[in-house]
Design brief:
Helix content: 40-55%
Keywords: Glycoprotein, Transferase
Number of helices: 13
InterPro entries: NST/OST, P-loop_NTPase, Sulfotransferase_dom
Number of strands: 8
Largest sheet: 5 strands, parallel
Strand content: 5-15%
GO molecular function: [heparan sulfate]-glucosamine 3-sulfotransferase activity
Structural class: alpha/beta
Protein name: Heparan sulfate glucosamine 3-O-sulfotransferase 3A1
Shape: globular
Pfam family, one: Sulfotransfer_1
Radius of gyration: 22 Å
Strand order of the largest sheet: 2-3-1-4-5
Bound molecules: 3'-phosphate-adenosine-5'-phosphate sulfate
Length: about 300
């Protein structure tokens, strides 16, 4: 009898399914995440995933994007969630990054119920005021047309920012999503109702900007995976990574083709006064200090 070529065996199934079959034969399987980067939005979550995906023991979503299961796609079911990730072998960890989970009140409880085993979380944080400005700028920049952008000035952006984050009585508007997302203590409290503090690694944005390799090593240690990143891999001011003889570069700098708002002394003081007690509470909850807590 004629031997059937392996490629022939797969001719009625997609290339993707054929590749998956080969991987399954080699011990790869579909799995729910072992580690979730829960946020916060605009605190450096993309750059962190860009590098971690090169680690041989990390598998991310197959489309390389945020999965948004526990906030937007929960009705699609857990099998759908599982199917969003690359197959992983027993030495690898499956990694989800969806910064909106951090502020989704129902997410911690859903995650605890739906994913068994000892999950680990990475929480990226940043000076709440600079996070707020980045979030404000970025949200509008992705929604707005080029014509709109060209008409913006620092003054018009400052006015728009104030309209968004201040109430009619010129107080900080707690329900503005920009303000709300930067109130780390309120959100983290919800996570601590369901998980132990030890399950979270906090990555601070300024520390990641000044010592990317150091922070990646913290992630490796926290996740119990082999040390992979070395100094010589990072080139062009950390924007590119040398991996298996190739150079991979990406731009993580948000689109700032129209002016940023100006945060004058008065507004900055209001924001700092608003966030200070919340930052202090966040320090207490996380058991570590941040340079921006008492600014
Ligand atoms: N190496 C490094 N370290 C720390 N932070 C960095 C790094 N590279 C980029 N960035 C900044 O990360 C900001 C975007 O954060 P996120 O990727 O979490 O944004 S998002 O929520 O996924 O949209 C975004 O901030 P802004 O530029 O202020 O908007 C990026 O500049």
């Amino acid at each position: 009898m004629k031997e059937v070529e392996p490629s022939f065996k797969f001719q009625n199934i997609s290339w993707d399914d054929a590749a998956k079959k080969i991987l399954r034969d080699e011990g790869y399987e579909s799995r729910l995440p072992d580690v979730i980067n829960i946020g916060a939005k605009k605190a450096g979550t993309t750059v962190l995933m860009f590098y971690l995906k090169f680690h041989p023991q990390i598998q991310i979503s197959s489309h390389g994007q945020e999965v948004h299961y526990f906030d937007w796609h929960y009705d699609k079911g857990i099998k759908w969630y599982e199917s969003q990730f690359n197959l992983a072998n027993k030495h690898q960890l499956v990694y989800d990054k969806t910064p909106r989970y951090f502020i989704t009140k129902s997410a911690p409880c859903k995650i605890r119920k739906d994913i068994s085993g000892k999950l680990r979380f990475i929480l990226c944080v940043r000076d709440p005021v600079s996070r707020l400005i980045s979030d404000f700028h970025f949200s509008k920049s992705i929604r707005s047309s080029r014509g709109w952008r060209q008409m913006q000035t620092a003054e018009s952006e400052t006015k728009r920012l104030k309209d968004e984050i201040l109430t009619a009585n010129f107080l900080i508007n707690e329900s503005s999503p920009y303000v709300y997302t930067s109130d780390y203590a309120t959100h983290f409290q919800e996570w601590l109702k369901e998980f132990d503090r030890e399950q979270f690694l906090i990555i601070e944005n300024d520390e990641m900007r000044s010592d990317l390799l150091g922070e990646l090593r913290k992630v490796e240690t926290f996740l119990g995976i082999d040390p992979y990143f070395t100094e010589d891999m990072f080139v062009q001011e950390n924007r590119c990574l040398k991996h298996e003889g190739e150079l991979f570069c990406s731009s993580f700098i948000s689109d700032k083709r129209f002016p940023l708002p100006t945060v004058d002394e008065g507004l900055e003081k209001m924001l700092r006064d608003y966030f200070r007690p919340r930052n202090e509470e966040f320090e207490r909850l996380t058991g570590r200090s941040y340079k921006w807590t008492n600014l």
